[in-house]
């Protein structure tokens, strides 16, 4: 499965920024060893249900350690029997575009 998720503290720092808190969540994701990528809006993570959800929970807990309230947005693509889809889906799209 692939999950796309975004975690953010309820309040930012003195400038309104949330990057330091979000960085703690990304450290958890990267330390998991699961295939992942982060863009401006979401982090994508691929693996089995239990391992992916455990990483998401740990990432939420990392942000919760610095904020009394945490927001989580999560979207999942659940397709049993398929792996390597984090990059394969994008490759199929690029082929369809023909660029």
Automatic annotation (TrEMBL):
- One of the Pfam families matching this protein, by short name: Thiamine_BP
Domain Thiamine-binding protein, chain residue ranges per copy:
3-93
Q: Which InterPro entries match?
A: MTH1187/YkoF-like, Thiamine_BP, UPF0045_domain
> Single GO cellular component annotation?
cytosol
Task: Family membership, please give it.
Answer: Belongs to the UPF0045 family.
Question: What protein name is recorded for this chain?
Answer: Uncharacterized protein (TIGR00106 family)
The species is Kribbella italica
